[in-house]
Amino acid sequence: MAKPAKTLRAVEMTTPKKRPERPVIVDKNNAPAEKKRAKPAIARLTIGDKINLELPIYEAIEGAPCIDVTSLYKDSGYFTYDPGFLSTASCDSEITYIDGDKGILRYRGYDIDELANKSDFLEVSYLLMYGELPNKKQKTWFDNKMIRHTMVHEQLNFLFRGFPRRAHPMAIMVGAVASLSAFYHDSLDMSDPDQRELAAFRMIAKMPTIAAMCYKYSIGQPFIYPDNDLGFAENFLYMMFATPCESYEMNPVLADAMDKIFILHADHEQNASTSTVRLAGSSGANPFACIGAGIASLWGPAHGGANEAVINMLKKIGDVKNIPEYIAKAKNKDDPFRLMGFGHRIYKNYDPRATVLRKSCHDVLNELGQQDESLLKIAMELEKIALEDKYFIDRKLYPNVDFYSGIIYRAMGIPTNLFTVLFAVARTAGWVAQWKEMVEDPAMKIGRPRQLFVGSKPRKYEAVAKRK
Ligand code: CMC
User: Fold this and answer.
1) Which site in 153, 167, 236, 444 is 20 to 30 Å from 86, CA atoms measured?
2) Rounded distance, CA 343 to CA 349, Å?
3) What atom of ligand 1 comes closest to residue 341's alpha carbon?
4) Does 34 score more than 90 pLDDT?
5) What is the distance in A from the centroid of ligand 1 to the CA of 205?
6) Residue 299 Cα to ligand 1 middle (Å)
7) CATH of the domain at 138
8) Looking at ligand 1, which residue's alpha carbon is closest to its atom 22?
């Protein structure tokens, strides 16, 4: 995207340390170059008789161009009004692109189905962070880095013990991740590129360990240390389901499905949790605190909590014969019920992630001999009926990624309340990449939206005795 040249504020850097020899392709960590923008087209805005403004239009590489309104208030006295950011771009980004009408999702230019079917999660994390797929040497370097950081500080075990066993794992996850800033003081300074990178490695590598600890704690089993001979998804399954008293046999079909789920959830443009991470980071907060904020935002049922809500909904429907009743409820404006796992702010076509997971779901259930799983039957029939229903067709409501992920998790034996935790494990790769991109952008500013004030006019304070 192109913006006219403007005075850019360089990110304050500490004196760069001697950086270790390593195969990084895109290194924006040193003195940031000024953004190169083509000469912009102009949008003319007239307000009343007196205000005539010329606003630059930036072309995107793909997707809608943006009108730059940053000078609007200064030049006209007006703010723009866009609750929910329906028409507002909050940043430049080179990481992820979605075309919701065509059902396209790409990380750094690569189609999501190609990555899900050919790549692995750590390679995708490298791609998100550095902008290119790693060559063999770079991949080995990155995988080894990640392996070195899978363990958590031993003291963190005691933090878990402060939580009730019945606590929701997301409640523990928010606390445990934010608490990493209390343990890793050598990666808190966001102005130091080495510390930023170290924090990124720690975040991605430790999330599966923390997620599995949340599960083990809830069922009263001992924590299982990571096994660094295992791949990322394998290690997660191992820490979840192994016990100290017997050997654990890895099922490659399940590990493959898990890795695919992680890839599919790794990033998704400027969604609520990613925007939360960016907003928190824009104040200079440390990366662990920012990711903790992102996890809190992800928890809601309209975002990462939807996979849990899908299973609860399918259980409530209970039988294929009850589907019409629930479809009618979803269409009734007086009923708060919505079809969970359906609809998306961006996708107005089949969510490409759901296409990959639909197949994975069948693979996993076949492998586990659960082809007749009643919830899958209800889900398939619900999808079929909804996709033929005028209400859903008119509003372009299609199944999203969460419609199938929950069914896979359930078949694997992952409890429902852990689903969003797994979403957080995967999305950490995207959060970290987006946070790094923002911090390394020389034009970074603290995020601070305006408001349309609709409260009380000025009034005088009255002593409590005189109030009616
Ligand atoms: N069931 C029934 N009606 C729906 C649904 C649904 N799941 N989703 C949207 N609609 C209707 C909505 O009532 C509205 O109808 P009308 O135009 O008559 O008022 C119309 O479709 C547009 O909906 P909206 O609420 O304006 O759309 P939005 O972009 O604000 O909301 C959404 C997007 C994902 C929050 C919403 O579709 C939803 O609540 N879906 C269920 C929850 C869910 O599955 N969330 C996971 C999203 S994927 C994971 C992620 O990327 O975070």
Assistant:
1) 444
2) 9
3) 44
4) no
5) 33
6) 17
7) 1.10.580.10
8) 395
**Residue 48 belongs to a domain with what CATH number?**
2.20.28.60
What is each CA distance from 93 to 20, 189, 244, 291, 415, in whole angstroms? 27, 23, 45, 18, 35
How many CA atoms lie less than 13 Å away from 383 in the CB half-sphere? 20
Residue 458, amino acid: P
Q: Which atom of ligand 1 is nearest to the CA of 351?
A: 48
CB atoms under 10 Å from CB of 201, counted, come to: 18
DSSP state of 243: B
Whether residue 402 lies in the annotated active site: yes
The whole domain housing 190 covers 109-449
Residue 414 belongs to a domain: yes
Element (H, E) at 277: helix 272-281
pLDDT, one tens digit per residue, over 388-437 is 999 999 999 999 888 889 889 999 999 999 999 999 999 999 999 999 99
Domain shared by 146 and 59, yes or no: no
What the block records as the tokens of 76 is: 């006209």
Residue 430 CA to ligand 1 centre (angstroms): 23
Residues 311 and 189 in one domain: yes
* Residue 31 C-alpha from the chain's centroid: 28
C-alpha distances (whole Å) from 128 to each of 40, 68, 216, 332 are 28, 26, 30, 41
